[in-house]
Here is the input.
Amino acid sequence: MPRLIVTYRVRSDAASIEARARDIATEQSVEMPLAPIDNAFVKSEIIGQVEGISGTGGGLFDVRIALSGETVGGDAGQLLNMLFGNTSLHDDVLLRDVDVPPELAKAFGGPNVGVRGLRESVGAKDRALTCSALKPQGLPPRDLAALAGRLAAGGLDYIKDDHGLADQNYSPFADRVRACAEAIAKANRASGHATRYAPSLSGDLAAIRKQMTAVRDAGLDTVLITPMIAGWSTMQTLVRENRDLAFISHPAMGGGQIAPPLLAKLFRLLGADAVVFPSFGGRFGYSPETCRAIAGAALGDWHGLKPALPVPAGGMTLDRVPELLDFYGRDVMLLIGGSLLSAKDKLTEETAKFAEAVKRYSY
Amino acid sequence: MPRLIVTYRVRSDAASIEARARDIATEQSVEMPLAPIDNAFVKSEIIGQVEGISGTGGGLFDVRIALSGETVGGDAGQLLNMLFGNTSLHDDVLLRDVDVPPELAKAFGGPNVGVRGLRESVGAKDRALTCSALKPQGLPPRDLAALAGRLAAGGLDYIKDDHGLADQNYSPFADRVRACAEAIAKANRASGHATRYAPSLSGDLAAIRKQMTAVRDAGLDTVLITPMIAGWSTMQTLVRENRDLAFISHPAMGGGQIAPPLLAKLFRLLGADAVVFPSFGGRFGYSPETCRAIAGAALGDWHGLKPALPVPAGGMTLDRVPELLDFYGRDVMLLIGGSLLSAKDKLTEETAKFAEAVKRYSY
Here is the structure.
């Protein structure tokens, strides 16, 4: 199998960067001195190779390293391990970009339904989509369901669980999902909308498989998953086992040393149909340039994988809809959570304003 | 349930730190504006509370926040989500320390066998232990097994897989584990040693459960797991399902924004009997102070959990044995990998020197 090409951004002085690059190539492959290695296959196929080094200014260098695709063994967790496992323990390195061989992209497979599938589910051919979140955690299922019904009545496309909603005593997963799905279905019958509900999955594979049964029993076709917490292997398996479902990825625990656009790209590789990320101008510090690169990584041509829908979030507000749509274009799902909930008694009206603003502005 | 007390180290100016602390408390709990929240349980139990702020100099502050233990729902992945999920996306914050309610510590349970169990397995009452690693990845099972036999003949206590060994075509997990276990058992019969072999687990819960069958079929009682890749929930379940096995945690993907001593402490909470970490003076940049704190987090009294054995690694060498034992004391397992393998034809002799040096020096 051809090699993965991995770009690390390294803080170094010019005199040391070549040695540092070779060290990373070793660390992310054989992880031992090269001298005692005499196996021909390991020497020719497994040892990481420095492909190029280019200064980017300010004492930073982009180091391109070729790693064996064979070491991944088809497992998404092992992919992460090979890309960055030990090197993440160094504080002078960011994981900047990855390209994978076509065989590997095909083996992982990317999104199940992609942007087109998400659009079709809600009957929105070419406009931007809308989303909100059920919160706060701590509410019992009936209160979350009431909230879900009122958000759905406003005509949103997607309603997702807050990523903090798990399987807690005060709101067990199965009870919550059933109650919220029913409330949204009822609102849809009344309004004619096709609002979708995406429950948040949590726990190990066995726990999530049980949650998937509850998801299907409730007639749902979309879920939310946090790959950095569930584990990449877990997500990979779930995507494969549920080819008819759409997966929205949440970025929690995705901070630190992986470039945010790369994280979106890799989540898409694993099967995210939509990728939530903290947009500029909200509670988080991502720049417009970073956000544009995230959207590009989700949507761009890459080994024939379906595009994933960018979902800018994290403190978005209704008055920013035109600005956000100007910036992201139509291939986006705007997520406004807490700001809608602040409307309290006027939640449905405020939500309808959000849905209308997006529809009006993106046609 | 009483609250978790979480310490974040925040970079801020003095004028902003109170507001920043409140923002973190909100982000890690209800994740929405507080004004529209009217549920009494959420207001009294769920919303995070700032407990204290103290400057540590240089524009850094330690912010102590109390979070609801109920939100964890008994799941290790959700614990990580609640401690740091969204806040990890901010680059001005480190997760510094956590204390958990005794009920929560008891529910997670900590190590299965702990330091005493690891000692008993190899018949080493009170000396430091020794460990090496099978590498490089890319070798077929028979070559790894030959290596394992030669390392075992040198009288090591533990031999672990390199964390890059997964379930690859060139070395399938079950074949590798059987071959290496047999080679080590044969060496043990010849030498009278009780060298233990710890295969590296990878993939999702279903894949690892299959690997566990191979581990048990080979008569093994120790495994290696990388919690940041496998997922904390996966590890939690495996520890519970295999109470008679010892778990060694590998730190890969543990860089970034969680303080290394806290990572060791939380891996112990999840069930790590031994915690591998990159020691000072090797290939990684951890300071002696950080390493001392890691060892303290693994070994110290904490809610009655069994202590976990610190395993300093990452470029250790034979000539540093006295220095490392002076520093870490006897409650340690020294791991020397690549440096031993560099001995090539004299691998067994070099390994025996390592084992002897540790035995001599730590009695």
About this structure: The mean pLDDT of chain B is 97. Chain B touches chain A through 84 residues (CB under 8 Å). DSSP finds 15 helices and twelve strands in chain B.
